Amino acid sequence: CVSSCPPACGAQGPCDPRNSTTNCTGRCEPITLELCMNLPYNSTSFPNYLGHQSQRESSVSWESSLFPALVQTNCYTYLMFFACTILVPKCDSVTQQRVPPCRSLCLSSKQHCESVLGMVGLQWPEESHCSQFPEEGSNVTCLLPDPDVHECSPSHFKCRSGRCVLAYKHCDGHTDCDDHSDEDNCGCVERGLWACPSSRVCIKPSMICDGFPDCPLLEDERNCSMCSDNELACNNHECVHRTLWCDGRKHCSDSSDEWDCVSLSPGEGSLLTVFRTAVHYQVCADEWTPELSALTCSQLGLGAPVAVEMVPDPPGAPRRRWLHVHPEWSQRNGSALQGLLEKRGHSCHSRRRVSVVCSSEDCGRRPAGRVYKR
Amino acid sequence: VLGGRVSRPGRWPWQCSLQSEPSGHICGCVLISPRWALTVAHCFEGRESADQWKVVLGITNLDHPSPHRQSSGVTRIIAHPRYSRAVVDYDISVVQLARAVQVTSYVQPVCLPRPGQLPIPDTYCYITGWGHMGNRMPFKLQEGEVRIISLPQCQAYFDTKTITSRMLCAGYEAGTVDSCMGDSGGPLVCEEPSGGRWRLFGLTSWGSVCFSKVLGPGVYSNVTHFTQWIHRQIYLHSFQLN
């Protein structure tokens, strides 16, 4: 029993096979299955004629992949319409009952397309026996295609010849339509897209200056900010005053002013450096504590500290910019390290810099296999 | 996993099961630290609220009690802001666990790739999951060895535009070993040549209809592309920056 009963059956728990699909049909609901959004009707009722209990189940079914692929072979003009009548059956708004396709529509679809499936070793969906559908003209209402029926689903591009090809094959550089119409008028502009200057890549206009580079040379994220001299540009191109950069509080709406504020220099004895107010600072070892070493490693995602050293500045070293531990840092629980440091008027008394070596959190090791004696 | 085999208990200690009532297991996930896991964004379609999910670790058999089992609620689901439901691009989510799991020999995090580190085409890596086996859903965790397929080769299987740089392909032309429905969000891991450390390069995302005879490789979210984004999400949600 793979799913719970439809709500109309009044069941939330495991379903009873006796009432899951036969006596119990759901109420009308709007069609949400993208594949079938351009039908001449817009509400459906479940279970459908393939035994699916919901549109979600339909959307991940084998049939909802099979039919769009099969439509491309042009085996039958109304195949997609038939597919949708069994995937998302029409719901009669008066009776709240599903309306089946007519048997002749089913038979025509099967007659034209079953052999195509056979060529690639696939079978016509077992659940879609045409005998279950009423004859046209009988006293049961059934669906037949009319002039309003779209041959292609919304997931398809319709060639000038009338053939359907999958929408993503439109303008992909390969001819898919028999009349080549899927590759006509395929410039970026013609498709409502923006052309990256250095390449033939087209991107959506909404992707320009959105903080994510999409063009190969990142041109879509250039010249997006108009910041003044005392401001820096956030990743999403907002402007934030330099003095607010890396102060432990978010000022860019994407938080990018608080990214990459703390680092350990790889080639210089793992010295701690903090980028604050758009300038790199050394951290003065005065008042440094083991808790701050642990926070540094944790913030960098590197586990726990294994070695902490207060490195004396060599005589004649260049004048450094120092950050000092804030006197009330311990009351700022949960802050990032850069929020616990401050600039002071005086230099570092000890003239020692903080160096921290972190353990790198252990990961990616499987436990050793046990040895069983034979 | 199609064409795989039952895993030995504890062999993949980072594999987790993302569960929601009443269905139980919905997707796979991967532990990357005691408080954080990764999965794919499409697992949360229609069930976006964190409080209806739990993460289960340390198990092999989905419906058997295990002394190594640990579970946690979910505090936060961070889907990639550019996730596209239509083309399954940027299919990744970071999941914050309600409590830190205890690292044991059955529950351990996996390493993320280094910046720019991609798996080498034609090398062999492993996928794992409780997804469909082609004829039935398994109770025991399955593992399968898959070959990494280069981006151009994969684009030839599917379509140039369908396969983006946010995706990785792995498997076989004949589809003999492949991930399937229910494996989504689970790991594609490769062992480093020097010394037994495993890195997470992919998260099971999509592919052809795996239990038909439509062939081809599986498509995985390319974790390398997202490493910086993952680190930033963890950082931003671990410290009080507001």
Could you explain how this protein is built, in words?
The complex is a heterodimer of chains A (374) and B (242). With 374 residues, chain A is an alpha+beta fold. Chain A has five helices and 17 strands. Chain A has helices spanning 55-59, 62-71, 79-87, 103-119, 290-299; strands spanning 29-30, 43-44, 90-91, 98-99, 156-158, 164-166, 194-195, 202-203, 231-233, 239-241, 262-264, 272-276, 279-283, 305-312, 322-325, 341-342, 352-358. In chain A, helix 2 (62-71) runs antiparallel to helix 3. Chain A is elongated, with a radius of gyration of 33 Å. Chain B has 242 residues and is mostly beta strands. Helix content of chain B is 10%, strand content 32%. Chain B starts with a strand and ends with a helix. Chain B is built from two helices and 13 strands. In chain B, the strands form two sheets. In chain B, strands 8-9-10-13-12-11 form a six-stranded antiparallel beta barrel. Chain B has a six-stranded antiparallel barrel with strand order 2-3-4-7-6-5. At the A-B interface, helix 2 of A face strand 12 and helix 2 of B.
What does the radius of gyration of chain B come to? 16 Å
N-to-C SSE string of chain B, H for helix and E for strand:
EEEEEEEEEHEEEEH
Assembly state (oligomeric): heterodimer
What general outline of chain B do the C-alpha atoms trace? globular
Low-confidence stretches of chain B: none
Largest sheet of chain B: 6 strands, antiparallel, barrel
Key attributes of the depicted protein:
heterodimer, A: 374 residues, alpha+beta, five-stranded mixed β-sheet, two-stranded antiparallel ribbon, 5 helices, disordered N terminus, B: 242 residues, mainly beta, six-stranded antiparallel barrel, six-stranded antiparallel β-barrel, 10% helix, 32% strand, globular
